[in-house]
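Subject: for your reference before the review

Hello V.,

The reviewers asked for a structural picture of the protein, and I figured it would be easier to keep everything in one thread rather than splitting it across files. Below is the amino acid sequence we used in the manuscript, unchanged from the supplementary table.
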Amino acid sequence: MARYTGPKSKISRKFNDEIFGPSKALKKKSYPPGMHGRGRRKKQSEYAVQLAEKQKAKYIYGMLERQFANLFDKAHRKGGITGENLLVLLESRLDNTVYRLGIAPTRRAARQLVLHKHITVNGEVVNIPSYSLKVGDTVAVREKSKSLEAITTSLTVRNARAYSWLEWNGAEMSGKFVSAPQRDQIPEKIQEQLIVELYSK
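And here is what came back from the structure prediction:
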C-alpha cells in the first residue's frame, strides 16, 4: 500500500475530524463519505473503534502500516506508558518537527522538504523523514534553501503558537528539540490507549 494521495476531505469526513487541517467539506457534510454515509450509523464493534483510531493516527502522521507497527514495537519496549511513548516517538520524527516549527505548512510538505535535502540536523543534511530526533538536536533550513519560496511563504504565515518542547530562532531559520513532549502538550486528538489495546490482542 502506498501513501494516501486521494481527497483529504474524504478522510476528514471518515473520522469526523480535521485530520489534514481545516476542512470546508467536513463543516458542510458532517457524515461519512460514500452512498451509505447519510444512513443510520451502525454501532461499531470494539475492534472497529480501535482499528479506526490506529488508521487515524497513521493518516495524521503520514505513515505506512509496517512503519507504524515498528514504531509501536519500539514504544512498547521502551518502558513506561506505551501509548504516551508512541506519541512522543511520532512527534520526534524529523518531518513532524519541520512541520511543527512552521518551516512547512503541512506534514506532507515537510516530508518533501526533507526528502529533497533542504533540511539539516546538527549541521548535517538528513533526507530521512522518519529520522528520530534526540533532545538537544538542532533542525535548520539548509543555507542554499533559505530563499526557497515554499519555505519563506510558510514561515511568513507561520502559526504563532509555540510548542513548549521546541525553540525557534527566526534569524537562523533553525529550531531546537529542547525536550520530549508530555502527553498534555500534544494537540492531536488521538486516543492512544485504543491503539495499545488493538496491538495487544
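For the response letter, the relevant points are probably these. The radius of gyration is 18 Å. The first strand starts at residue 119 and ends at 121.

Happy to draft the paragraph if you're swamped.

O.
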